[in-house]
Amino acid sequence: MIAKRIAELRYERQLVLRALRALERLSELKAGINDVPPRSSARVSGGPSGEPRFHRAEAREEQI
Fold it and tell me: What is the pLDDT of residues 25-47, one digit of tens each?
């Protein structure tokens, strides 16, 4: 009985930690929303040397 309750509490703890990480990630995205152009404008353009240059939105997606 006690072991079952411990297992339930561990599971609930995992859910809470997962939710906290999701909220933290959401707040990071929300804080950076003004820095990123709209998705429709996230395109590749040629740099001065002819190499592809990625806009910030795509660079940010690669970091994730």
Answer: 998 888 887 665 555 555 555 55
User: Model's pTM, two decimal places?
Assistant: 0.46
Q: DSSP string spanning 35-50?
A: TS--GGG--EEE-TTS
Q: Give how far the C-alpha of residue 6 lies from the chain's centroid of Cα atoms, to the nearest Å.
A: 31
3-class secondary structure, 38:
coil
Degrees (nearest 5) of the Cα angle 28, 19, 57? 30
Cα-trace Rg, the chain:
20
Q: Which of 58, 28, 62 is nearest to 20 (CA)?
A: 28
Structure tokens at 58: 């795509």
Token pair listed for 22: 């999701």
